[in-house]
Amino acid sequence: MTRRRGDTTASPSTSDGGAVPLARLASPIGLDLGARTPEETAVAIMAEIIAQQWGSTGRRLTDTTPLPIHH
């Protein structure tokens, strides 16, 4: 079955083929790092993904109370 011309919507999916709940998707994505190149944008996106994965805020370490970096 083919899509109709102009129908570009697609359901997001995981690597194992499962559907991603739309509530988990955010736009725009990435931390505000002031990225100017595609490579810097990729770093900003990965930084947000890592922060979300580990429940971090993405704040500067110098702006937080002293805690060990590695637990």
TrEMBL record:
So which domain of life are we looking at? Answer: Bacteria
Q: Where is this region: Disordered?
A: 1-21
- Per its UniProt record, what InterPro entries does this chain match? MoCofactor_Util/Proc, XdhC_Rossmann_dom
What's the protein here called? XdhC Rossmann domain-containing protein
Q: Which residues form the XdhC Rossmann domain?
A: 21-49
Organism of origin is Streptomyces radicis
* UniProt xrefs under Pfam families: XdhC_C (PF13478)
